[in-house]
Amino acid sequence: MDIKIGDYVTRTSHKNDMIFKVISIEEDICYLKGANVRLYADSEIDDLIKVDFKESDDKEVVDRLKDTTSKLDRDDYFYLPGKILHIDGDSEYLDRCLKYYNNVNLMAMGICEDEKDISKNILNYLEEYNPNILVITGHDAYYKKKGDIDDINNYKNSINFVNAVKEARKFEKSHDKLIIIAGACQSDYEELIKAGANFASSPKRINIHALDPAIIASRMSLSDINKDIDLKDIIGSTKYGKEGIGGILTKGTMYMGYPR
Length: 260
Description:
Elements: E1 8-11, E2 20-26, E3 29-34, E4 40-44, E5 48-50, H1 56-69, E6 78-80, E7 84-88, H2 91-103, E8 108-112, H3 118-129, E9 133-137, H4 158-171, E10 179-182, H5 189-195, E11 199-200, H6 212-221, H7 231-236, E12 246-247, E13 255-257
Parallel strand pairs: 7-8, 7-9, 9-10, 10-11
Antiparallel strand pairs: 1-2, 1-5, 2-3, 3-4, 6-13, 11-12
């Protein structure tokens, strides 16, 4: 089969369980990026099957969030959702998340930054945009062959995410005043929480959906600033639930005003 860069494919050896985009080809090896999951992989070209792909599940999560906002009393009150700053190591996933924020009418700023550089520049970004919610994501992986799951050196980018969270907490120490959502596929969940994240991936070291950090950010943006969130409900709104993302009990970021 004639497979070229930009095609969407599945891997026969993995029972065609996941859709990837071909991002480069060297001789008979294709380098792949998950269409929905924040994951890099490679495969022999003969193992691949070309498939059709559309971002069909994005509409589902948009509609689900709109169902939440439809319950707001807009006859007498107006609402000011929290501002989101989304820093992503992947430009395609960032664009997809920004499209999602726009579709649910939330104010979000997006920056594409290599994971290793986020901690160097994050204070400048926070001072410029002064967000209520900060997303730090991109790509990560746990390298099982390297050793123990509790050693952060055995991860692709977890140490970079941890350093970025620590720098962000220098800007704002309060978990209620700055909500931080950090991590990507298979990230060191415990270390990210200890560093100061409100939400982090991945408790079970699984791959997460491209939109999962944005879903959490959106739900926090639309949660009442005076009330504790429903932690299980918000985490349950992501693709893989508590196996993919966990967090701590905190308050929302949305103000309510009167009269409309």
